[in-house]
Design goal:
The chain has a 6-stranded mixed sheet, with helices on both faces. Strands 5-4-3-6 form a 4-stranded parallel sheet, sandwiched between helices. About 40% of the residues lie in helices and about 15% in strands. It is globular. The protein is α/β, with parallel strands linked by helices. It folds into 2 domains: about 5-45 and about 160-330, Rossmann fold; about 50-160, Rossmann fold (3-Layer(aba) Sandwich), CATH 3.40.50.1100.
């Protein structure tokens, strides 16, 4: 089934810019660095989830839903963008927000994405860290149905085959921009967690028979676990698109060295990477995803694992509103 045949809503500002990073490239030496600005998708502060929500919210509407349910951490970028999409479309939104270790910080619980969730009038449900979020979402959906609502459940991160279509389309968009610039992209580097962004990109590049390598920097689990998750979702996405050519197993690559003590927990490398991107390019990263992914990219360049003269694109998946929730983390700058 061609991508154009799937229901889709216009929620994002597309295409997002593809920009060179000359000062960062000079500071690090080695390859030519670029950034794909998916922090500029526009909706509710922007970010990568908006591309997924174009397809997911269209599916919700097609099924007659008047309410969406999704889950994530307290400072979830996905939850914030889902709340914004629901507000824009006049739908109800319920967010199951999982407590993590950083929850004791007052800013973490009241600022950043959580503040925006409230401004978008989402219904917030705080749950303990050991909660089965799928089961909790099903239970909440049953409660809403009893009140006459028609809920649609969106998986964590919007990472389903339908959601991943947003990044199948992004791969097409990015390759088109590169062609216009006569730019050959050797590597694409991004943060990877719920897997939909990386899986969608891999599926999209595979459909185009692109030779660009994709490296996901893990922010929530080991490389082996993440690769299994990405590989499975990519296969489901290609099946949804009726692609009979399987993705080569070696195409799924991740690096698990930058998770630190866990998801959403700050690392020294992340703090330095956020500061470097800001001071060299005026580019705001976030403390959970892109900060750790940039820490990985910086090390890969400094260790000579990316060759001089290669073109490396960093996918900026957004999330800078979370900086305000991590204020104390950056006090020493």
């Amino acid at each position: 089934m061609p991508l154009a045949d799937f229901p889709r809503l216009e929620l994002a500002h597309l295409p997002t810019p593809l920009e060179p990073l000359p000062r960062l490239s000079e500071a690090l030496g080695g390859p030519n660095l670029w950034v794909k600005r998916d922090d500029c998708t526009g909706l509710g502060g922007g970010g990568n989830k908006t591309r997924k929500l174009e397809f997911l919210m269209a599916a919700a509407r097609q099924q007659g839903a008047d309410t969406v349910i999704t889950a994530g951490a307290v400072q979830s970028n996905h939850a914030r963008q889902t709340a914004a999409a629901a507000a824009k479309l006049g739908m109800g939104c319920h967010l199951l927000l999982e407590d993590i270790a950083a929850d004791t910080d007052r800013d973490y619980r009241g600022n950043g994405n959580i503040l925006l969730d409230r401004i978008f009038h989402a219904h917030l449900h705080h749950v303990p860290s050991d909660t089965d979020l799928d089961l909790a979402a099903e239970s909440l959906a049953d409660e809403l149905r009893e009140t006459g609502k028609v809920p649609y459940m969106i998986p964590i991160g919007g990472s389903s085959p339908i959601g991943a279509l947003g990044y199948v389309d992004c791969a097409r968009e990015l390759m088109g921009q590169a062609k216009q610039r006569r730019l050959s992209i050797d590597h694409l580097v991004l943060a990877t967690a719920s897997a939909g962004t990386q899986a969608g990109l891999l599926a999209g590049l595979h459909l185009q028979k692109s030779k660009t390598s994709v490296l996901g920097i893990c922010v929530s689990r080991s490389a082996e676990e993440q690769e299994n998750k990405v590989r499975a979702l990519c296969a489901e996405t290609l099946e949804l698109l009726h692609c009979k050519r399987a993705l080569p197993p070696e195409a799924v690559r991740t690096n698990g060295d930058y998770v630190g003590q866990g998801y959403g927990l700050a690392t020294r490398g992340m703090i330095k990477a956020v500061a470097l991107a800001a001071s060299s390019e005026g580019l705001l990263l976030d403390p959970v995803y892109t900060g750790k992914a940039m820490a990985g990219l910086v090390d890969l360049v400094r260790e000579g694992k990316l060759n001089d003269g290669e073109n490396v694109v960093f996918l900026h998946t957004g999330g800078s509103p979370a900086l305000f929730a991590y204020r104390s983390t950056f006090d020493g700058l």
